Every structure is written in structure tokens, then in C-alpha cells.
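R.M. (postdoc): so does anyone remember the format we settled on? I'll just put the C-alpha cells first.
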């Protein structure tokens, strides 16, 4: 992913495939895709925060440094904004992240735009690294906090990882949910099978996948994207 030209080329291939509804990205990536005409007829979600750089002392003080507000999202005629919302009870920076996320949820709802909240229950180890806890109970706690952010949840969607006991995890919310593809650590067949099973749950509406589809082991972006799209929309896509 160190080559922007290669990354954008792969994104263009993905967006041209049937069944791909849209893209989630930071402003710089969306502007490249816009100039290439790749966003016509697509759902476009802007990434809002990520001032909390991975590995930094301020990682959980995750300020909005991309699209900074609902007003910016609306002014650029995007369809919504996404906010990573990591929760660590031992880190004072968490409260600023929660406050910013809540304001974004409320503001986006006022514009009738999607607020995509990506919550994680997190902890910082003795080595200083922040780890997202992916056991079912931790994900459930993160869901319950994320669901209550903002003055209304009418336009809130959740973006959640595929974890064990996902059927029990999804009972924690009535909000529509998109599944986080995550880093490709398993064989593609295993990953697709886990996605397919998760998509059978009533409130799960689709997938938001990055590296696993843009950089598949065999290099065939179109085939990987087509497989994922078929899981979401059916084999006729």
C-alpha cells in the first residue's frame, strides 16, 4: 500500500465491479477517485477521525483530522461519515473521542446522513501498545456505548468485526450493521465462509472490506471483489 498509484488503480477496479455499492475513505483518496470519475452512482462515506496515530502516546485521543464535522461531509455532498471510536476506561483520551463521535452522530443526523460508528473496547498493554479486544463480551460492551452516542440513532450504522459468537453479539443492537473485513490473516476460503455465515444474521446489511479484497493472495482484485459481492447480493450480481 506504499504506492498510491497502485492503491488507487486497485480501488478503481473494485468500484467497477457489479455489486459494489460504494467506498469509505479519507478525503485524499476520495478526491483521487472523484477526479478519475470512479464515484459516479456510488455511496461515498468520508472517514472523519484518526488523529490518534497507531503506536503514539495520544492514540486514544483520536481527534477528527480528516473530515472534521458533519457540515464538511454535507458540504461535499457525501452520503455519510465514519468515525473510529476506541474505548479504554484507563485512558483519559477516550472521553474526547466519545464526545467528538457523539457530536458527529448528532450533526450527521441533522443532515439526514449516515453516521457509521466503528467501536472497539481497547486496552493499552505494558509495552504501550493499544489492542482492540475482540472477544464477544468486549464487542458487546463497545456496541452498547456506541449505540447511545448522539442525540438520535436514526441515522447510525455500526461497523463491527467478525468475531466468535456473532449471533449473540448482534443481539446487543437493533442498528443496521456492516461487517469489518479486517486484515487478511486466514485463507481466503475461510474468510469468505465466515463472512457468508455472518451475513445471514438479520441486522447485518453488508461488508466494508479493504486490504483483504484489494490485495488478495493471487492478486486478482476483480475476482476477490466479485466473490464478496456475491455473498452480499447473491450470485446473480
Amino acid at each position: 500500500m506504499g504506492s498510491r498509484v497502485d492503491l488507487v488503480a486497485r480501488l478503481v477496479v473494485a468500484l467497477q465491479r457489479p455489486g459494489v455499492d460504494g467506498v469509505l475513505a479519507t478525503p485524499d483518496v476520495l478526491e483521487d477517485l472523484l477526479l478519475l470519475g470512479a464515484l459516479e452512482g456510488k455511496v461515498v462515506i468520508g472517514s472523519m477521525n484518526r488523529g490518534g496515530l497507531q503506536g503514539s502516546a495520544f492514540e486514544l485521543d483520536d481527534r477528527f483530522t480528516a473530515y472534521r464535522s458533519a457540515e464538511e461531509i454535507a458540504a461535499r455532498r457525501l452520503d455519510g461519515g465514519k468515525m473510529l471510536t476506541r474505548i479504554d476506561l484507563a485512558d483519559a483520551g477516550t472521553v474526547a473521542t466519545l464526545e467528538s463521535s457523539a457530536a458527529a452522530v448528532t450533526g450527521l443526523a441533522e443532515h439526514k446522513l449516515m453516521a457509521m460508528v466503528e467501536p472497539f473496547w481497547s486496552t493499552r498493554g505494558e509495552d504501550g501498545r493499544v489492542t482492540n479486544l475482540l472477544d464477544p463480551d468486549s464487542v458487546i460492551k463497545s456496541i452498547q456505548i456506541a449505540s447511545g452516542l448522539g442525540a438520535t440513532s436514526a441515522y447510525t450504522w455500526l461497523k463491527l468485526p467478525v468475531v466468535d459468537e456473532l449471533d449473540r453479539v448482534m443481539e446487543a443492537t437493533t442498528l443496521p450493521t456492516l461487517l469489518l473485513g479486517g486484515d487478511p490473516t486466514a485463507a481466503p476460503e475461510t474468510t469468505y465462509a465466515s463472512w457468508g455465515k455472518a451475513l445471514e444474521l438479520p441486522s447485518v446489511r453488508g461488508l466494508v472490506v479493504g486490504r483483504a479484497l484489494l490485495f488478495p493472495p493471487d492478486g486478482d482484485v476483480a475476482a476477490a471483489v466479485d466473490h464478496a459481492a456475491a455473498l452480499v447480493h447473491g450470485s446473480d450480481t
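R.M.: ...and that's the designed sequence above, right after the C-alpha cells. Also worth knowing: Residues 187 and 195 are 13 Å apart (CA to CA). The chain has a mean pLDDT of 94.
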